[in-house]
Amino acid sequence: MVPKIKLAAFFAEFLPTPPITRDQVDLMTHDNVVRQGAQTFATLDIEPTAVEPILPTYLDRYRHGGRYNQHAPT
Questions:
Q1: Burial of 3 (0-12, 13-18, 19+ CB in 10 A)
Q2: Which of left, alpha, beta for 48 (phi over 0: left; psi -120 to 50: alpha)?
Q3: 44 in Cβ contact with 51 (< 8 Å)
Q4: 33, 56, 61, 63: which has the highest count of C-beta atoms within 10 A?
Q5: Nearest alpha-carbon partner for 28 in 1, 47, 52
Q6: Cβ(22)–Cβ(10) below 8 Å
Q7: By three-state DSSP, how is residue 8 classified?
Q8: CB 72 within 8 Å of CB 63
Q9: CA atoms within 13 A on the CB side of 39
Q10: What global pTM score does this model have?
């Protein structure tokens, strides 16, 4: 059944707003629900950080004039 859906998704990708893609079909073939008793951030001693303070450090290199251009907008 999956090869037929993947073939349909291949052709759907040519639409302006595809209803499904081949990548989505691949994702649907794997379980993505966390099982009971799975380790959490707390049990792994990891403190999650919000993306807002970190993202600008990754995007600095794409600013006009580079990372160290103090006059470029952030």
A1: exposed
A2: beta
A3: no
A4: 63
A5: 1
A6: yes
A7: helix
A8: yes
A9: 5
A10: 0.48
